[in-house]
Structures
1.
Amino acid sequence: MTATECESCDEAWAYDRVRCPNCGGEEFESVELGAGELVATTVSRVTPPGVREPNPLGIARFGDVALTAQLVDEELDAGDEVVLAGDYQLRDGHRGPRLEQA
Amino acid sequence: MERAITIAGAGMTRFASDADADVRTLLERAGTRALDDADVAGHELDAVHVGNMAAEAFEDLSGLHNALAASLGAYGAQADRVENTSASGASAFQRGLQAVASGAADTALVAGGERMSSASTETATGVIGSIVHPEEYEYGVTLPSFGGLAADGYLRRYDAPYEALATVAAKNHANGANNEYAQFQKEITVEDAVESPRIADPLRLYDCCPTSDGAAALVLQAEGGDVAVRACESAVGTHAVAERDDPLEIASVATAGERAFAAADRDQGDIDVACIHDAFTVLELLELEELGFYDEGEAWRATMDGETRLDGDLPVNPGGGLKARGHPLGATGVSQLVELVWQLRGEADGRQVDCETGLAVNVAGFGNNAVCSILEENT
């Protein structure tokens, strides 16, 4: 799993955007996320159609980049070291990585 | 603001889980009540601005502003609809205010409305869920799950008990019990909230606002109304929630609040009553801190000490808030201001607080955007 970094100013972010929020640059490169820390968790117990129920979720911070993602299970807790990895069914029609113990 | 703006009339429908009419009719009911309250005729309106998030998705309806203006006889008025998700109502208020402040209009009607019950739960969930970032959507993230993440972070960081959140719910239900326009007019105990089903840990059912039907409206005039608008300021925050420097930060609320206090030349100590966007109980605590009423990590204790009750130092959500009054998306921001108008006039029977100055904050999504307004008795 990768984040996006601006080639002009090195600002980094996880969520697709059309321009760099810092310098307005439009040339980006992908950078590896590496290991991060889980900062908050929840278990969503009422989920949209096509999404697992319950759906454990967490916010993880990887240096300057942070994101919300599904947790591999409910055992993960804030403070745990995590990686965004694997290939899971996230919701109907979408596959991708989950936060796993590093 | 270029010239002082006043509120001359206010009205709303009772918020309900399943109203007996479509959103156009709800807007007409609220609009005529506000016009009658102001003693203004439809043909005297120069501007009609409607806040609504998703009438196309909920009810297959568009053009609500033209339908409302024509029904009220406001031919020739400038009219449009403002969409800012769950802050559409306050954004329509800001638009109406700017119309009067600029001189484009002398008399404006601002109305907010939504009818959510007409869609299936699946459709409603899809509509509300569509406001998150596409990469959040892939993970099945819902608005309550953002509430759960923020509540987990808040309780953990400040070593606060879950009962702090339940106290917000119990307080707002107690206030709603005295508001004949509230969807829920029933008191609950802290224990009721503690025992209610889990929605997004640590949030439970009573931590979450309902889906609702309803409308609210205000008549704005350049002068003469009995309530003065001192400020209405808004700001955009991040789209993806995780992009915030801190998961407990809602920068849009802080920025809109700072701008409103500066524009009104007032500070936190001047505010006698506040309507806070409590879509989830934890949001009332976070927003009170972002607005500077309490230091970070202090709002929960103040709430448990009763400071935000009707008889406290800073009564918060005297009308029941989104929790008990209900949350018909586009109507909410206007209904907060209607409550402030009634409070400032001394007309809030059964829940009246002693006040001269009131503040409201209406939030879009989980802090994507916020609108903060300050109203005052026009002496």
2.
Amino acid sequence: MTEADGPTRVLPNAEPAPVASRAADAREAAARRWVVEHGDILWKFALSRTRSKEAAEEIVQETVLAAMQGFGTFAGGSSERTWLLGIAANKIADHFRRVRRAKSPSSPGISPDATCGCATCRGMFTEKGMWACVARRWPDVSVSEAEKSEQAGALRACIDALPPGQSEAVWLRDILGIPASEVCKAMGLTDTNLWSRMHRARVALRSCLETKFGLRKEKGQ
Amino acid sequence: MIRFVRDVVRVLTLPCREHVVLFSRQLDAPLSRGEAFGLRLHIVYCGGCSRFRAHLSHLQTLGRTLAEQTENEPGLPADVRERLNARVARASKKN
């Protein structure tokens, strides 16, 4: 008997586990690792968006279970964390679609194309595409942390009012700072889809913040 | 060089409605050198676009603040983690 015979001595009757069982074990091990390594960020993301512990828990569970089902489809190119956040973003968007449908079929949210009240203008611009109204200077955030924190709170409320899909893209891209190419992969969007979604969202956020800063009147006021 | 000049001229002749699209895209993907230079030239004389770009960078600053606030929030609570692991185990047995 040599050293190389060691393993057969330790497990003389061991039989190789069936392939399906090994795959299930690997999937479960991966899911447990995701909970340890990415559970906190998934929870914070879901809770920040939904502000409900019950809804956040459901979203995190659905995310991990969906990732388990798609285990092996993760092709790299983005980090595992971004992949999971992308699944969570789609679950959050689905959650809000369900909630809004249940609440009101025509929930107004915020206008993506804020108007300045000019009869011939299309949103921020004249028919020729020039500025219709003079953009105002925003309150300075560098003066105090309290001001910055207050404005960040206003931004959070404005993001909440965006349509589902836009707010999740803003969270991934502009809040969590995930590179655009990774957000595209994670949310299943093309570059052009993401650019136009982000542009509409940023214009709507700008308009919403101006209203909150008291620099713009709501339409119809 | 020809492409650079062509892009600068194209950007300078666009209406402001298209400039704001480019300002936003610049945050997600690099523009060509000519497009970026054309935008820089444009905001020298266009108050509306200059202010719009300032608003975008203000939004980015607030986004970073919101990220810091989120980072400081508590992570996955122990009871939620426990239920999540139990659900993972059940799902694993089912498949």
